[in-house]
Amino acid sequence: MSKVLGLFLVAIFSIAYTQLVNGHSLRGCQTRCGNVSIEYPFGISTGCYYAVHDSFNLTCNETTNELFFGNMQVVNYSHSGELRILMSRSYACYNRTRVAETISYNTNLRSFTFSNKNRFTAVGCNTFAFMTTIFEDRNYSTGCLSTCDSIPKENGVCSGEGCCHTSVPKRSKRFIIRSSSFDRDASVNNFNPCSYAFLVEEGMFSFSPSQDLQNLRNFTKFPVVLDWSIGNQTCKQVGNTSICGQNSVCLDSTTRDGYNCKCKAGYDGNPYLQEGCQDINECTTSSAIHKHNCSGSSTCENMMGHFLCSCSSGFELNATTNGCMRKHKPVNTGWIPILLGTTVGFLAILLVVICVQQKMKHMKSIELRKQFFEQNGGGMLRLRLSGAGPSNVDVKIFTEEGMKEATNGYDESRILGQGGQGTVYKGILPDKSVVAIKKSRLGDSSQVEQFINEVLVLSQINHRNVVRLLGCCLETEVPLLVYEFINSGTLYDRLHGSMSDSSMTWEHRLRIAVEIAGTLAYLHSSASIPIIHRDVKTANILLDENLTAKVADFRDSRLIPMDKEQLTTMVQGTLGYLDPEYYNTGLLNEKSDVYSFGVVLMELLSGQKALCFEKPQQSKHLVNYFASAMKENRLHEVIDEQVMKENNQREIHEAARIAVECTRLMGEERPRMKEVAAQLEALRVGKTKDEGSDQYPEPEVNEHLVGVEILSAQGDTSTTGYDSIKNVTMLNIEAGR
Ligand SMILES: *[C@@H]1O[C@H](CO)[C@@H](O)[C@H](O)[C@H]1NC(C)=O
Ligand SMILES: *[C@@H]1O[C@H](CO)[C@@H](O)[C@H](O)[C@H]1NC(C)=O
Ligand SMILES: *[C@@H]1O[C@H](CO)[C@@H](O)[C@H](O)[C@H]1NC(C)=O
Ligand SMILES: *[C@@H]1O[C@H](CO)[C@@H](O)[C@H](O)[C@H]1NC(C)=O
Ligand SMILES: *[C@@H]1O[C@H](CO)[C@@H](O)[C@H](O)[C@H]1NC(C)=O
Ligand SMILES: *[C@@H]1O[C@H](CO)[C@@H](O)[C@H](O)[C@H]1NC(C)=O
Ligand SMILES: *[C@@H]1O[C@H](CO)[C@@H](O)[C@H](O)[C@H]1NC(C)=O
Ligand SMILES: *[C@@H]1O[C@H](CO)[C@@H](O)[C@H](O)[C@H]1NC(C)=O
Ligand SMILES: *[C@@H]1O[C@H](CO)[C@@H](O)[C@H](O)[C@H]1NC(C)=O
Ligand SMILES: *[C@@H]1O[C@H](CO)[C@@H](O)[C@H](O)[C@H]1NC(C)=O
Ligand SMILES: *[C@@H]1O[C@H](CO)[C@@H](O)[C@H](O)[C@H]1NC(C)=O
Q: Which residues surround ligand 3 with Cβ inside 6 Å?
């Protein structure tokens, strides 16, 4: 805003000024005569020149357009005190007989004086010339002598042969020349008829002997420099009364008395006028001497008398180059960038450290996972999967990350059940299918084999009444098993636990018994390699929403080689269900499962636990209690009230008989699982024939191993709950060791 206003004011002043001074002269004065401009203090008409000394009066011959100082033509002049004029030379010519004619030449310099830039020069053979001036009020003479008898050979040299010159002291005034010759004879006169003497500005005359000695008349006038100044006082003496204008300085003349004026740096114009010195716009001027020297990136800004090179913010000017460079923050505010830099550096280092740590951690965790994989029998599993049995056995091996994601980082809200054998989590796989993830408890290495066992066993079973194993994860410290999700609890829960209710009718129970018996029969005989479950109990029977039984927990199961009827193993099982013969001998065969099934059947019939320590001695062990009740014909005492109806007493009796047969002490006396299944099935079929009420479809059995299907079942939306180890703690009293 102020800048604009400033420009505006400058414009106004300029207009006013032009009207007043009209360039470099006073208003209304002639500014030119021919080629020469006329500037104050010089002028032509009255009032246009500095009148105090009467020396600055010039005239202009309008016909020839030549400017005159007195009778001398003006070439040019400068503010610094020089006036260049043209002066005629003096000469003397000779008769053949006559010698030495003296011609003088006089001139009026007014108050001006000769500059010492001039040279007094004489041209001619056997010639001498001298000048007399008033120098500091004394008569003063100087001169030179030149001799020659022939035309000098050298051109341009004025050294005494045909031409001589001498310097003139400054402050010389009044100029009188006398020239004369001596020893002139006809031969000299032939090539040099005249002698010449003149003043000339140094360097403006170059002697050319052959021509100049013959005839210098061609050059009638030579430039001569006069010194001029204002007054005869020093600047100090005149003080503020000098005629020097604004923005100009007064300078004492170096060549004479008086002073001259000079525009200050950055201003240009006529310093002898009041407002003659005008600011130079260095930014726009085309003049090379005044042009700004802001370099490159800096921008020029014109100021009164000077200019500024300015830089955009964030940059500062380098005084030596006038270019811009990045700002160098002062020290006292430097702590911010230092702090910033330090912080950034520190963060960068921290980041690198964290990255390296993460990387190492990652590598370590990969290492660990590998280690766990081996430790958890990954190698064994691979070996067993590739070596033994059918090639279509397929168990998906999940990654640890996948498991973490599926269980939301083993979140507590995802726990379905917790027990002696471990924890079961509800997991959601990336394809949104729900699974049960079983995390065994930290165990010794012997459990690895059990674990691998379960994987192998389950991977080879495809039965609608067996919980499907989908895969496993071996990369964790404790291996994980991934099952289909079955959501309606265990048979144990239904009979004795949290979910017990009256909805479990005899029809349901019988069907469940048939399903379990059929499954065990299938495991014992129909699967390609006979499997003994070894831990049949109600807690290991899962129920889905249709109360369809799903046999689970094959942790202790054994694959029995075809050529062997029984195996000697470490006795394992659950008290109450454990086959006493197996317990005593350690000999495992399929009849152990038959025993356990008998107990389960008794539970279904009686609604009582296999082993109940709270009860009196005779009813503590369900098998004994049931057998004695049967024997003493007081079965009704044992049978669950919910079950016993008028129309099913025969079936219940039959089932009870089967249960007791299954739990015979001697394995040989027990029926095979196949027979049990058939008898129970017959009971059920007979019943449906009788009453036609139960619409439950026949359990179908896939007779072949479909490991591939185990995997594809992941997408099966009908997969439901799994809860095998809920409440297991109570019953899972290991009988072995
Ligand atoms: C003016 O200058 C021109 C060229 O510079 C020159 O030819 C001419 O003679 C000059 N006129 C006068 C009057 O000095
Ligand atoms: C101007 O110059 C011409 C030729 O040199 C001369 O005749 C005339 O008198 C001069 N005029 C004045 C006013 O000096
Ligand atoms: C200026 O000079 C001219 C001729 O040189 C002369 O006629 C005139 O009177 C002078 N004027 C003054 C004020 O000296
Ligand atoms: C004045 O004239 C001389 C000779 O003609 C020349 O060298 C010089 O540059 C001129 N000075 C100005 C300021 O015009
Ligand atoms: C030489 O001088 C005399 C007398 O001054 C004169 O009469 C004569 O004409 C001159 N001769 C020449 C060649 O100038
Ligand atoms: C200088 O010389 C002139 C004539 O040549 C004479 O009139 C004058 O008085 C002299 N001045 C001094 C100071 O000698
Ligand atoms: C110089 O003088 C000679 C005669 O001496 C003449 O022929 C010549 O034209 C003159 N030159 C000029 C430039 O006047
Ligand atoms: C200065 O000049 C004035 C008038 O021009 C004159 O009266 C005075 O004597 C001079 N003084 C000196 C020291 O030259
Ligand atoms: C010159 O300066 C004096 C005091 O130093 C002052 O009184 C006077 O007015 C000034 N004159 C001008 C024209 O500035
Ligand atoms: C200015 O620039 C010159 C040349 O590039 C350099 O040597 C000098 O150090 C700079 N000055 C400052 C103050 O940075
Ligand atoms: C620029 O010009 C100024 C005068 O106008 C001068 O003082 C300075 O040294 C110059 N700087 C450069 C870098 O040429």
A: 46, 54, 57, 59, 70
Query: Which residue ranges of the chain lie beneath pLDDT 70?
Result: 1-25, 96-106, 217-218, 328-337, 384-394, 419-421, 442-448, 450-451, 454, 527-528, 556, 559-565, 567, 570, 687-737
CB distance 591 to 612 below 8 Å:
no
Ligand 7: residue whose CA is nearest its atom 6: 218
- CA neighbours within 13 Å on the CB side: how many for 294? 20
Q: What are phi and psi of 585, to 5 degrees?
A: -100, -25
**Whose CA is closest to 405, among 370, 430, 437, 434?**
430
Distance CA 33, CA 53 (A): 22
Distance CA(133)–CA(169), nearest Å, equals 9
Which of 110, 232, 259, when mutated, tests ligand 8's pocket best, judged by the most ligand atoms within 8 Å of its CB? 232
Which domains does the chain carry? 1-228 (no CATH), 378-484 (3.30.200.20), 491-732 (1.10.510.10)
- Cβ(293) – ligand 11 distance below 6 Å: yes
Q: Are 72 and 107 in contact (CB under 8 A)?
A: yes
What's the 139 CA to ligand 8 centre distance in angstroms? 20
**Which of left, alpha, beta for 22 (phi over 0: left; psi -120 to 50: alpha)?**
left
Q: How far apart are the first and last CA of the chain?
A: 102
Amino acid identity, residue 57? N
Token duo for residue 28? 């209304």
pLDDT score for 328: 66
Pocket lining: 649 vs ligand 11, CB cutoff 6 Å: no
Q: What share of the chain is helix, strand, coil (3-state, %, to 5)?
A: 30, 25, 45
Q: Kindly list the catalytic residues.
A: 535
Please, what sign has the CA dihedral across residues 373, 375, 376, 381? positive
**At CA 234, angle to CA 231 and CA 239, rounded to 5?**
100
| pLDDT tens digits along 588-603 | 888 989 999 999 999 8
Q: What local confidence, expressed as pLDDT, does residue 122 receive?
A: 92
CB-based contacts of 703: which residues, under 8 Å, 6+ apart?
526
- Entry pTM: 0.51
Asked whether 322 lines ligand 11 (CB < 6 A), one says yes
Looking at ligand 3, which atom is closest to the CA of residue 46?
13
Residues 536-592: tens digit of each pLDDT = 888 888 888 888 898 887 776 776 665 666 767 767 778 888 888 888 888 888 898
Beta-strand relationship, 541-543 and 434-440: unpaired
Closest ligand to the CA of 245: 9
Question: Are the C-beta atoms of residues 712 and 431 closer than 8 Å to each other?
Answer: no
Based on DSSP, count helices (H) and strands (E) in the chain, helices before strands.
Answer: 19, 36
With tokens 């400033």, the residue in question is: 6
Tokens (6 digits) for 660: 């007791």
Quote the ligand 1 centre to 49 CA distance (angstroms): 24
Single-letter amino acid, residue 210: S
DSSP 461: -
- Give the position, in ligand 1's atom list, of the atom nearest the Cα of 65: 13
Quote the CA–CA distance of 336 and 613 in Å, as a whole number. 78
Tell me the β-bridge partners of 88.
221
Q: What is the pLDDT of residue 101?
A: 52
Instruction: Tell me the CA distances in angstroms from 705 to 196, 444, 561, 638, one per residue in order.
Output: 141, 31, 17, 40
